[in-house]
TrEMBL record:
This is Methyltransferase domain-containing protein. The keyword Transferase applies. SUPFAM superfamilies: S-adenosyl-L-methionine-dependent methyltransferases. CDD domains: AdoMet_MTases. It comes from Streptomyces finlayi. The lineage of its organism: Bacteria, Bacillati, Actinomycetota, Actinomycetes, Kitasatosporales. It holds the Pfam family Methyltransf_25. One of its GO terms (molecular function) is methyltransferase activity. The keyword rRNA-binding does not apply. Residues 60-158 form the Methyltransferase domain. GO terms for biological process: methylation. Keywords: Methyltransferase, Transferase.
Amino acid sequence: MFTSEGPTLRELAVQALSSVERGYDLLAPKFDLTPYRTPDRVLDAVTRALRPLGPFAAGLDVCCGTGAGAGVLRQVCDERVTGVDFSAGMLAAGRSALAGDDRSAAGPAVHWVRADALALPFAPAFDVALSLGAFGHFLPRERPVLFAQVYASLRPGGRFVFPVGAPPAVGSRVYWSLLGFDMAMRVRNALWRPAFVMYYRTFPLPDVLDDLAGAGFTVRLLPLTELGSRPDGSPRARMVVATRE
C-alpha cells in the first residue's frame, strides 16, 4: 500500500497517536505518497461530472489537504479557487504540490486559508464547494454544523459536491477491513488522548442526505459511471450535488 518514499511505520504510529491537526502536519510532506490521497481516476471522474453543472466563477475546496480538490476546481472555475484546511502542514504541501500539477496549470491561482471547517470564515461568495475524503474526520453530530457552514459560504444557486462510494457488501473483505479499522480507532480514542477522529463507517448516505436537507440544500445524485458498476448494475460511486436554492 505504501511506496518506499512514503511514511515509515514509525511515522504512521506517531501520527496516529497525535491529534488530527498535529497528525496531518506530520504526515503532510509524504501524504501524496500514501493510499489516502484521492486517486486520479476519481478526480478525473468528478471533474467530468462537474463541468456540465457550470459555469463556475469561484470554487471552495473544503478540507483541502494537499490540494487534490483544488486541482479539480481550477479546471472548472474561471476566476478564483480557495482551499481551506486546519493543518498548516497540509496547506504548505498543497502549495508545493499544485504548483507542479500540469493538468490544472491553466486555471486560476489557489488561495490557501487555514481555518476549521466547522467555523468557515467566508461570506456567501462561492459558486461551488467540493470536498474529497475528509468526512471521516467529523463525528455524526458535527455533520449538520459542517453542512450549515458550507451552505453559508455559497451564493444562492451554489453547489456543494462530493463523491460517495457504494457501501461494501456485508461480509466482504472490504466490509470487515473498514469495520476493524473503526473498532480499532474507537479503542484508541477510548484509551489515548488527544483523540484522532477518523472513521469509515460514520457517513451513511441516507443520514447524510437528511442532514443536507436540514441545512437547506436540495440534493440529487449523479452516477459516476466511469468508476464502474456493482454486480447488480448500480454504480460503484455517485456524486452528491447539493444546491443552495
